[in-house]
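Field notebook, page 399. I keep forgetting to write these up properly, so this time I am using the form the group agreed on. The chain and the ligand, magnesium ion, are recorded exactly as supplied. Prediction of the bound pose follows.
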Amino acid sequence: MHYDHILIRYGELALKGKNKNQFITQLQRNIQQALKHYPDIRVKRSQGRMFIELNGQGPEPIMKQCKKVFGIYSLSLALKVENEESSIKEGALFALTGSPNAKTFKVSVRRVNKGFPIRSQEMNRILGAHLLKNTSIYTVNVHEPDVEIKVEIREKATYIMSTVVRGAGGLPVGTGGKSLLLLSGGIDSPVAGYLMMKRGVQLEMVHFHSPPFTSERAKQKVLDLTKTLTEFGGSINVHLIPFTTLQQEIFKSMPERYAMTIMRRVMLTISEKICHEKNILSLTTGESLGQVASQTLASMNAINEVTNLPVLRPLVALDKEEIITHSKRIGTYDISIRPYEDCCTIFVPKSPATNPKREIIHELEKKVDFTPFMNEAIAKKETIKIVHNVQSDHFDELL
Ligand code: ATP
Ligand code: MG
């Protein structure tokens, strides 16, 4: 006897009335996609659960992939047996005796198949008695058992489990529309991207770089960050925008105090154009309130003026420490701290305005028209598609 299935629970989805079916279909597709390196493995769904038949494949690598799929609430290794009292007894005994270090247990039967002749409570008693009779080291503890033997009696078969592992939670990527993430090489924006993916949002990236002031390795950093995020869902397009000329024009013609704000406005304007082109309905940034001079509410107000699209800022209320904790956990931290120059760190003004005024910006922007430079930058956009590659995964375990 051995565990031959993985049972998948998707808690939050149950709440989503009308869209439920679309969510479940997407989740099934995403799990199947995460397991694309196992062509023989199929994900099946039935009565509020999903099942993976292992077909002799070791469970650990499959579990590891599944633990990164948003929308999964928890997972269990399961033993499938026939809907017969004797088989269920045998299976429960296997599950209990295979639990390392357990001294106390509890049996929890769920009878999904109401056609099964023995009711859950009665079945709990029968199995508890069977386990006590056939072992000598275990006792029952219904409140704090070392191991809970879960038994799900379903339409065609019964599944027996002794462990429950937490899944990534959230919603399946692809059910929440698309957002364009402004991805720098820093710590924050990849975390912002991760959190949006967790809400079911599919990402594309835009990155502004300033060669030769920023190096190839700085660009590689952004591609590597994106690659890490693909571990949580499919493939992601990265749009690279050459920003050197624009930055030079801005810093040449605008007062130093306002150059940073105007540069951000230009970034957002270009990003919005990419959204229109790609049919994307929102932008995401890694901004966090008060973190630096350029991230005050006045600054956000001044920058945000150029676009009508929602600008999502999932980190807005987080402390730097919290952001760093996230970034270490999802595997982007070590990439983010590589010491290559970012376009914003090169042209950084000594004292940017912390309280920029829209009226002043309007006056300043009347003097120079950046549109031709923006159009040129967009025309020179380079797009790279990053596909999830299991072999190079480095994410280990969601806490
Ligand atoms: P991060 O750690 O994400 O770089 P930060 O704390 O350094 O953020 P800023 O430099 O003020 O903050 O940037 C704020 C946000 O603007 C970033 O989180 C990112 O979304 C966007 N951004 C900054 N620089 C770039 C860039 N070169 N390309 C694309 N987006 C950028
Ligand atoms: Mg930065």
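OBSERVATIONS:
- The pocket of magnesium ion (ligand 2) is lined by residues 184, 186, 342, 344 (CB under 6 Å).
- Residues 180 and 383 are 13 Å apart (CA to CA).
FOLLOW-UP: compare against the apo run.
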